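Annex B. Sample input.
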Amino acid sequence: MGAMTVWMDSWQMECCGTPFSLGERVDWAVREPDRNWLAGVLGSQAAAQVDAAEGHHGDVDPETTHRATGTVTGIQYVHCRYATASDRTRHPVPGSGTLTAVHEAEQWVRDSGESEFVGYLVQVDQD
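Annex B, continued. Sample output.
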């Protein structure tokens, strides 16, 4: 079926996710990604490459949703800086997103200096 790039929010893994590694098989319920938010972190070009977002906390219906099923071929940690907007909400600082290739998606990932850990970009070679 080909490769798929899946976004996984940090809180999804921190709450009750299962760590995974390169070469492992996954079977995730996925939904449309929030490309506007991802564009704020990764830039619009990189955000457009994200095919789906993993979810397992009521944000996807396991009966009617799509699935990402296959072998993990790439994992990247995503960090970004946040700034407080005039409405007192925090938003990613455009262009501050950084990607770090790793072999394993750990359940808890540290922030990096002023950048906060926000999630994982995972490449899945679908069955």
